[in-house]
Design goal:
400 residues, alpha/beta, four-stranded mixed sheet, 18% strand, binds pyridoxal-5'-phosphate
Length: 400
């Protein structure tokens, strides 16, 4: 018998070598208590959270939490059914209405996760004879959506408008084409040149889907994402998003103005063949989305935090993923996995949690310490964070 697990041996060995050096497992941290969107207790110690995607700090908002508690009392703990059977409650409709209002779009469809939203929409609208032209650094859920639908995948160089145009021009003019882009790329925290990319895609007869997972709530005048900030939201055919970041809970969605959009509810397998979100989750999401519409002050403060952290880390001598802050994600580039893991642990010992990211999730084989800021980090906390980076960076030899 061939052990089907033997393909994982190199990874098992790499992991064991790392842990034998006495390092804390960076992929197995337990949050013993979460006190707020910016502070938790880890290993018995107060820890500032700088790796949570909780960009707008909605997880402890009293109205959001209150809506969830009410829904638990009124509708119970779960729906135990698919959206197309017994799993559509008034709360599911209400959160879809909140999304339609937030994006000013005609249609909204809620999935159980953002992963399933990409998986479902991409695989359903682009099939075997269609082409999906996508940025090579696209999220795993986008690639998995392409694979599930069996479409022809045409990748192009990250954020390269000319490369996108060249690929589009080589495809048969009459073929179905879907260009898939992200507003913010979550590994380096850089934004896409959507204005140019959407124009090139439309000029070459392609539909456009933009995943705004990391920009919703924060980027754009009303928090609708990079497509809004760059003035092309009306030209985008589908926006994918998640409730697991700025919205502060779990779930995924697609919004669109396509007149035939609603048919997806019958043919999209990751929507049909899975249970719907619990009533408490959709209630918290709807409340949070409506509050995000009026969060200009929080957006402004988050930009301040992002700029302050980016400038401070650069001044300390760290190499960063972007020349300028472009989002709430600041990626610190580490020379290798061992140093990255040592720095991650040194930061944790200082009282700071960040994400350690490594291939295959990262581009170009990079090891990254990903910092994701929250609108509720105070100016003092950002100062504390910089002090911790200075101490850990010197202790591990990352900076002098
Ligand atoms: C760009 C992008 N799309 C989709 C997702 C999936 O979101 P969810 O956590 O809701 O499954 C993520 C999650 O990290 C993401 O980064």
């Amino acid at each position: 018998m061939t052990d089907l697990f033997s393909k994982f041996d190199p990874l098992i060995e790499q992991r064991e070598t790392l842990l034998q050096s006495g390092l804390t497992d960076p992929f197995n941290l337990v949050m013993e208590k979460v006190e707020s969107p910016t502070v938790a207790i880890c290993n018995g110690r107060r820890t500032i959270l700088l790796g949570t995607y909780n960009y707008m700090g909605m997880t402890f908002d009293p109205e959001v939490v209150g809506a969830g508690k009410n829904a638990l009392d009124e509708f119970g703990s779960g729906t135990t059914g698919s959206r197309v059977l017994n799993g559509t409650y008034s709360g599911h409709r209400a959160v879809e209405q909140a999304l339609k209002d937030f994006y000013a779009m005609d249609h909204a469809m809620v999935f159980s996760t953002g992963y399933q939203a990409n998986l479902g929409v991409i695989s359903t609208i682009a099939g075997k004879d269609d082409y999906i032209i996508l940025d090579i650094d696209s999220h795993a859920s986008i690639y998995d959506g392409c694979a599930l639908g069996n479409a022809q995948i045409v990748p192009f160089r990250h954020n390269d408008v000319e490369a996108l145009e060249k690929r589009l021009k080589r495809l048969p003019p009459e073929a179905g084409k879907l260009v898939v882009l992200e507003g913010v790329y979550s590994m380096l925290g850089d934004t896409a040149p959507l204005r140019e990319m959407v124009a090139v895609s439309k000029a070459n007869g392609a539909m456009v889907l933009v995943d705004e997972a990391h920009s919703m709530g924060f980027i754009g005048e009303r928090g609708r994402g990079v497509a809004e900030a760059q003035g092309v939201i009306d030209d985008v055919d589908f926006i994918i998003g998640t409730f697991s970041k700025s919205v502060g809970t779990v779930g995924g969605f697609c919004v669109s103005n396509h007149p035939k959009f609603e048919i997806l509810r019958l043919v999209c397998r990751p929507y049909v063949f899975t249970a719907s979100l619990p009533p408490s989750v959709v209630a918290t999401a709807a409340t949070s989305i409506r509050k995000l519409m009026d969060s200009a002050d929080k957006r402004a403060h988050l930009w301040e935090n992002s700029k302050r952290l980016h400038a401070g880390l650069r001044q300390l001598g760290f190499k960063l993923g972007t020349g300028e802050p472009q989002s709430a994600i600041i990626a610190v580039i580490m020379p290798d996995l061992e140093t990255g893991a040592a720095m991650w642990e040194a930061l944790l010992n200082e009282g700071l949690y960040v994400n350690l990211a490594r291939p295959p999730a990262t581009p170009a084989g990079m090891t990254l310490l990903r910092c994701s800021l929250c609108a509720l980090h105070s100016e003092e906390q950002v100062g504390e964070i910089l002090g911790m980076f200075a101490a850990a960076g010197r202790a591990t030899g990352c900076i002098s």
